[in-house]
Write a structure and sequence with these properties.
single chain, about 525 residues, alpha/beta, Rossmann fold, 2 domains, 12-stranded mixed beta sheet, two-stranded antiparallel ribbon, globular
Length: about 525
């Protein structure tokens, strides 16, 4: 889930003029392998096996789910008809389910992350708990996921080229996949081809994306509609990037700091074991009033300065002298200083602190305790699961995070810097809500995520025209951080919220009343 520059989660495949070919689940018996649609392997392609189709059973609180799983690859072809890349995907469909059953295409972010996070963390039929002996990810054992979203939607999880087992033929071909526009256009093509090959046109098509994947979901929805004449039903955005201007190069932006502040306060409450939704709401009120005014105005002086510094220190757990030195712009020093002496917090989940590997350094040098810590176990766990349960056996290693993809990603005509700061989905959401009257949006965040703070997503939703957003766009908040679903209770709560999003005919809550209290 990276976004190292803002790590984020991804998923996708593509080549602007690619012609992928999918195996058709219905045409294969369980346990048989569909013929590969690619020519005899060139290089690494020779390590990828034919598609594997297997049948399984999942016990849930609401009964037994019998489902068919397909683990395989999609051939992407250029205009010359030659294979330019092979993309790995995993599809789950309810056995003998109707063709119009909801169908969800899911991906992570990064850019450069494979889909194992959402797959084994939230929606798939198997879950990797981070508790007991596996609290640090060192002894991963998969369990059935009684809250699998397969209960209300079929699933297709896709890894982008350069991640998982997805590979391009070479460096020149790979570059075609690493940009915002081509990423969205090519994924829309893959979705259209999958729907056609599997006779799923009557199904409502949803997109689920995490972090950068949430940003991508809005772009892909637009591309589905405009390039493929296929109308998406809705998108679910988990810990999304929505406005680059708040995240990239905004160290001294008063509004960006104010939108992040409630997450800093929520994380401090978590570390003190006294989390309370009402107190977080008080922090929200302070952030958008006195805090924002102080940061946007002249430097406070005298008593006013001391009072302001005290209030910020109390909310964040930072030393008052540090608040004074940074003039209240504490976002950059928070991870290094808020956890206490020789402790550090993760931007992904600032609610917990771990030992600082470099306590003598004046700035944060640590590997991230979440991104580069226990969640790395998703990669090896998925590789074993695909081999042993899904029948996809390969000697190629599974790439959970590819930082080279992140470094090479093109945003709006460039890499990094100003091009990232202009990244936005606000106009995409407006256009989708306006042109598709039934289109819906659900945004989910953890309170203690200071990497993509919930306040920034709330700002975007609050600034949608009310006649578009009312009853159709919601913000759901949970305890925990960027990957709040690693907490069992919050995964269960999001399952309930998502089930309502998919099947409940009652209107969704508005963006202003989507802050349900969560208990541990």
């Amino acid at each position: 889930m990276t976004m190292r520059t803002i790590p984020i989660l991804t998923l996708l495949l593509l080549a602007l003029f690619a012609q992928p070919g999918f195996s058709q689940d219905a045409a294969n018996e369980a346990g048989r392998q569909a013929p590969s649609s690619s020519p005899a392997g060139r290089g690494l392609f020779g390590l990828l096996p034919a598609d594997s189709v297997t049948e399984h059973v999942l016990q849930t609180p609401d009964g037994t789910l019998r489902y068919v799983a397909t683990a395989g690859t999609v051939d992407l072809r250029g205009q010359d008809g030659q294979v330019s890349a092979k993309v790995f995907y995993t599809a789950y469909r309810l056995k003998d389910g109707p063709k119009d059953r909801p169908l969800t295409f899911a991906f992570n972010g990064g850019p450069g992350a494979a889909s194992a996070y959402l797959h084994l963390g939230l929606v798939g039929p198997k879950i990797l708990p981070f508790s007991g002996e596996n609290a640090d990810g060192s002894q991963p054992v998969l369990h059935d996921n009684p809250q699998s979203w397969l209960a209300f939607t079929d699933l297709v999880l896709i890894d982008p080229v350069g991640t998982g087992w997805s590979r391009a033929t070479g460096e020149d071909e790979a570059r075609r996949y690493f940009s915002v526009r081509q990423d969205a256009e090519s994924l829309a093509k893959v979705i259209a081809l999958y729907v056609q090959a599997n006779d799923r046109l009557p199904a409502s098509k949803f997109l689920l994306g995490e972090s950068y994947g949430g940003f991508r979901a809005a772009k892909v929805a637009q591309a589905m509609k405009n390039s493929q004449s296929m109308i998406p039903a809705g998108i679910i955005m988990v810990s999304p990037l929505m406005e680059g201007r708040f995240l990239f190069g905004a160290e001294n932006d008063p509004l960006a700091a104010a939108l992040q502040f409630p997450s800093l306060a929520a994380a401090e409450l978590e570390r003190q074991n006294r989390f309370d939704v009402e107190q977080v709401r008080e922090a929200e009120q302070f952030a958008m009033t006195d805090y924002l005014v102080a940061l946007a105005g002249a430097w406070p002086k005298g008593t006013a300065s001391n009072d302001f510094d005290q209030r910020v220190a109390a909310w964040t757990g930072l030393p008052q002298t540090l608040v004074a030195r940074t003039r209240g712009f504490v976002g950059d020093v928070y991870a290094k200083q808020a956890g206490g002496v020789s402790r550090i917090v993760s931007p992904y989940d600032a609610g917990t602190a771990v030992a600082d590997a470099y306590p003598e350094a004046p700035y944060s040098r640590n590997d991230d305790p979440v991104l580069e810590g226990y969640t790395r176990a998703y990669g090896s766990a998925f590789a074993a699961y695909a081999r042993d349960s899904l029948g996809f056996r390969t000697e190629m290693t599974y790439s959970l995070l590819n930082e080279e993809v992140n470094r090479r990603w093109e945003w709006n005509g460039g890499r990094g810097g100003d091009s990232r700061a202009t990244a936005s989905v606000a106009t995409d959401l407006r256009d989708l809500l306006s042109t598709i009257p039934s289109f819906r949006i659900m945004v989910a965040h953890g309170y203690s995520d200071i990497l993509t703070p919930y306040g920034m997503s709330r700002y975007v939703l609050d600034h949608l025209p009310p006649n578009l957003a009312e009853g159709r766009a919601s913000l759901k908040l949970y305890r925990g951080g960027h990957m709040f679903y690693t907490r069992d209770e919050d995964r269960r709560q999001m399952f309930a919220d998502a089930k309502t999003f998919y099947i409940d005919e009652a209107p969704l809550s508005s963006p202003h009343d989507g802050d349900p209290a969560r208990t541990p």
